[in-house]
């Protein structure tokens, strides 16, 4: 998106590809939702999520925005066998697909689905610093709330990854509407937050990595 098609194709060809299970999930999601497949993370983000979770040694993870399960599978695959991912979403229909693929992937014992508004789910979680890794990829106006609920529960050195922070490149357009103003506010909030160190990567639609100091 932020590069030429030739360079993007080259980068994709030199990134470990999704396996058959993830490719099948992407295909089935496309059949189910058509153009809304764009809600699913890009394959290279999936590879990156698994790598980040594994490199960080995370055992306890939270996802806000599960959809049909692509990112949750990538996160759970980076966890050790006794690790745990809490997956938050409001859609029974979409997460029914996710549940099926968790089972196929042998990950259903590692992932717990919590259906309901993610703000409520996060607020109901214990107050201690128990989360090692979080991924935020749900309704964009909710991002500040998700961030502020997750950060105090994240262990120092823990990581939050946040999707769609560049809004198809519209983030720098002052006239852009939709989710852009909310995302700009969120990006500003993170950039001035002395509790964290962050980097906004131009991967896919923008992926911000936030490490708690
Ligand atoms: C962009 S999709 C997530 C894509 C997913 N990460 C993947 O890789 O396939 C956003 C998801 O957020 C969910 N969502 C929207 N508002 C929500 C809320 N208030 N609480 C929890 N989930 C919400 C939607 O149901 C949808 O499944």
From TrEMBL:
UniProt GO BP: methylation
Bilayer-spanning residue ranges: none
One Pfam family cited in the UniProt record for this chain: Methyltransf_3
CDD domains in the cross-refs: AdoMet_MTases
GO molecular function, one term: S-adenosylmethionine-dependent methyltransferase activity
Database matches in PROSITE patterns: SAM_OMT_I
Key words of the record: Methyltransferase, S-adenosyl-L-methionine, Transferase
Name the UniProt record assigns to this protein: Caffeoyl-CoA O-methyltransferase
Naturally occurring in which organism (per UniProt): Microbispora rosea
């Amino acid at each position: 998106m932020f590069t030429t098609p030739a360079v993007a194709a080259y980068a994709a060809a030199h990134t470990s590809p999704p396996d058959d299970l993830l490719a099948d999930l992407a295909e089935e999601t496309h059949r189910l939702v058509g153009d809304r497949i764009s809600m699913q993370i890009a394959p290279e983000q999936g590879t990156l999520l698994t790598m980040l979770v594994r490199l960080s040694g995370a055992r306890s993870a939270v996802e806000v925005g599960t959809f049909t399960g692509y990112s949750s599978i990538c996160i759970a695959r980076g966890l050790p066998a006794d690790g745990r991912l809490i997956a938050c979403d409001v859609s029974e229909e979409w997460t029914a697909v996710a549940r099926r693929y968790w089972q196929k992937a042998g990950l259903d014992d590692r992932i717990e689905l919590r259906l309901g508004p993610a703000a409520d789910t996060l607020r109901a979680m214990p107050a201690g610093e128990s989360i090692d890794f979080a991924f935020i990829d749900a309704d964009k106006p909710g991002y500040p709330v998700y961030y502020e609920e997750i950060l105090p529960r994240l262990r120092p050195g823990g990581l939050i990854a946040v999707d769609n922070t560049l809004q198809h490149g519209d983030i720098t357009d002052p006239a852009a509407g939709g989710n852009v103003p909310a995302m700009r506010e969120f990006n500003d909030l993170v950039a001035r937050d002395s509790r964290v160190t962050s980097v906004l990567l131009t991967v896919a639609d923008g992926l911000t990595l936030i490490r708690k100091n």
